[in-house]
Amino acid sequence: MGKKYRVGILGATGTVGQRFIQLLQGHQQFEITALAASDRSAGKPYAEACAWKLTGSIPENVREIAVMPIEPPLDCDIVFSSLPSTVARETEEAFARAGYPVISNSSSYRMDEDVPLLIPEINADHLGLLETQRQKRGFSKGFIVTNPNCAVMSFAPPLAALHRKFGIESVVVTTMQAISGAGYPGVSSMDITDNVLPYIAGEEPKVETEAQKILGTFANASVEKADFSVSAQCFRVNVLDGHTASVRVDLKQTATLEDVVEAMTEFPSLSLHSSPEKFIEFTDEPSRPQPRLDRDNGKGMTITVGRVFPDNVFDYRFVALSHNTVRGAAGSAILNAELLIDKGII
Ligand code: NAP
Known about the structure:
This protein folds into two domains: 5-149 and 329-342, Rossmann fold (3-Layer(aba) Sandwich), CATH 3.40.50; 152-323, Dihydrodipicolinate Reductase, domain 2 (2-Layer Sandwich). The protein has twelve helices and 13 strands. It has helices spanning 15-23, 46-49, 60-63, 85-97, 120-123, 129-137, 152-166, 189-192, 203-214, 257-265, 291-294, 326-342, and strands at residues 5-10, 30-36, 78-81, 101-104, 143-146, 168-177, 217-219, 222-224, 229-236, 243-251, 280-282, 303-310, 316-322. The chain binds NADP nicotinamide-adenine-dinucleotide phosphate.
């Protein structure tokens, strides 16, 4: 077995932080050596600071770790960040400046021109931005990479498959986002029970802009964004985990239904430790994908796509689903770290 990297988690007591801890159990390349959260938690053993909300109990290897404040130094080689965007920007920069690779879930740096917004299967070449980032920000060893918004993660992969083959003209997307996407305690049960909320603060601008950067072209040390437009409406629905996106798309080139399905199903996965066997799983079951039945496909790392049909107004429509705290958050960040090691950047 190769070297094990020591990882620290910022926001370790939160919804995504807990998922990091769960997914890192038994990982071949990473061991958790540092946990950090707010002043409310700092100084306490993790088991005391954290209201654990995942199945099973708090893993033994983290129970006694003393939670640290979110400032460098931390006893680790790599920092995973799942901090609220209010504190992420300043904190992630401080860690990168102190020499740590920072692999972030937060929205704070996603759209900065010198920061890769990564989906390893789609745009690993965007890691070329790190050279620019280091020069521009004066980082010596450290850097920041980000993964997409959890709702964008559900539909960017099928869009990537279509964009590569046929080009995308425009997209209309309606997201149905799980309760866990709001963190803990999130939305009040009085608000979400028997209800659909047609507003998630700050979400629609992210869903309307991130895919174009992800599907952009890396050249001359920068990313030229893909030139399609996205119109989005984002809803919070009474589902615990799993974001669903209803998508309508116009293509630049003509494609048959078979072409469209083939483009999605043949999009390759990678062979990193956390890579699912299938990056995109296509289903022709009329009533799928469904969050409860499909969010755990590929251990939560696969995007499930169904309901692919020609549309009366756009060229095609489909429904895409991903697990928001696994592929949409902690799982993606871990995959990004595996990619960085694979590329020799860490
Ligand atoms: P959460 O459940 O509210 O957890 C927030 C974490 O950050 C907790 O560990 C909390 O520590 C810590 N924290 C809060 N305020 C802090 C402060 N002022 N200083 C230091 N630490 C502070 O939120 P979450 O859902 O895990 O989301 C974390 C980040 O990931 C957000 O940026 C979110 O947008 C992003 N994200 C979330 C999802 C998802 O599905 N939930 C998906 C993708 C991305 P204490 O316990 O000590 O308060």
